[in-house]
């Protein structure tokens, strides 16, 4: 597989588009040349969704697009939600599904007069719509059908609908999610129920709404509550009962508050992973680590974590051959932050599709290190990951960047002409 096809496969693998490479290449060439006429058929639905995403974000691509018949109703809903100037080209309003209308009306409420199926919207549809366009509440009369998740989302965006809630007790388990976004709703909740969720819930709230600290029932915190609160307490560290904290809680506290180190007496209980995280964040604790452990005790993932932030420790890694402990994933994580260590890597063949996609996203110069057999696995690996965890920079930006590199490589590969 040549360089051009390999990079295009990686390009679309990153955005989770399960399509054939030949089709990807055709579409990418169309973007590169700004000419879509040579495309003979509509791409499959997944790739078409990606194209619409590009057109929606950067409509200048549409200036050379002629295959308007490829747009299905859902594609039009997505496009018109951001680019309503193309509405004159659309004549299939009756083919829009109820959720398509939600997508459209959430950004373009002026089209509401064309919609006559309000009673077909699900509660989740209404939640999405009202979060963006609360004026449509006058058309909604099934507030009792909204579930807890719907209310958490809706009240977080539109607190004026609090008077529509008929069962605040049913939302008690989610009070922290709502109050952290809308602190003025705090009085709606039963204080007795709120005290059942202490450390972690109050930590969540106070991170975003520190003005509610006077309401926090510190006196009711148990040892477990204090330990759950530690990694969320940067503004209220003076409230902590340090004497009841476990080693794990200290490992979360010290990276942000190293000044408390003199009050910690659990160093011998720190696991190696706690130490590696601490040293990565606060190098002054390196000498403390050496009091309790040897460098040979660090695992491959520990070395990757430490060296990513403290590359000067590479000498210690040399002494104990720590490099040999690192697997493909460890190397990928390390090289993203410290590419200068690449000459020491002998595990290129162990990087899987996810590792390669992550590494090349930040360090594209390592593309030549990828074994050919990994080329086609990238999209397959990425399709198994939760969608929101995969980096998704602008599609057209990525196309321009990668195709630009491809063109440069082609130019570099051309034989030099003899000078007369």
Describe this protein's structure.
There is one protein chain. The protein is mainly alpha-helical. The chain has a domain at 167-245. 45% of the residues lie in helices and 0% in strands. The chain contains 20 helices and no strands. It has helices spanning 3-13, 21-33, 45-57, 73-82, 98-107, 123-132, 148-157, 175-179, 191-194, 199-208, 223-229, 247-253, 272-281, 286-292, 300-309, 314-319, 328-337, 353-362, 377-382, 395-413. Helix 15 packs parallel to helix 17 (328-337). The radius of gyration is 28 Å and the shape is flat. The protein starts with a helix and ends in a 7-residue tail after the last helix. Mean pLDDT is 79; it is low at 1-22 and 374-420.
